[in-house]
Please model this.
Amino acid sequence: MSISPLFLSLKVAAIATIIVFISGTLAARLISRKIFPGKSLLESLFLLPLVLPPTVIGFCLLYAFGRNGWAGRILMHWFDLQVVFSWTGAVIASAVVSFPLMYQSAAAAFQNYDTQLENAAHNLGASRGKVFFTIALPLAWPGLLAGLVMTFARSLGEFGATLMVAGYIPGETDTIPLAIYFAVESGRMEEALLWVLTIIALGFSAVYWLQTWSRRKINFFRHHSS
Model:
């Protein structure tokens, strides 16, 4: 049994998580505290992948990034990059599906702390960038970290949209969820079981670490506030 699905899954999940962490954090920072016309519409669009079937997301991505899609033509013309039936497609599918988790966590993190420190820093002449990196980011970090871990876990387990966009090419796009599906389809149950146990262990480890870290942080604040 090839071990490529493990490394490919970790690679896809890591890259997708980096993309989603940056984009989700910036999006939440820019709009979570603001009120403007169309905000509900925009946030509904951000959260839409949570309620859509993965096949619908996969179809939309296939329509956009296929050879005749607007994004696919741009990427092929300017960067000679083919998204469909490549591991890049798996990254994009994982990023789109997991984006709402990061955005929700980041938006809650930026909304749940007192902004007086930010206002004081602005009044003292600090730039927006300095305020973000020295005040907002440290204060929101627990929520951002939770979103980061959940994004990674969700990217690791993405299946439906990935299958439609990246397909199943052994050694190229066979992430663990795809490897499990096609191993079962071909009757290789022992191989499927090994991959099932592997992805359960990875997902459980991520969630367990997050729960342990959160509990320790809560106990730390309770101890120092008493």
The chain has a mean pLDDT of 88. The first helix runs from residue 4 to 31. The chain is about 75% helix and 0% strand. The two ends are 55 Å apart (CA to CA).
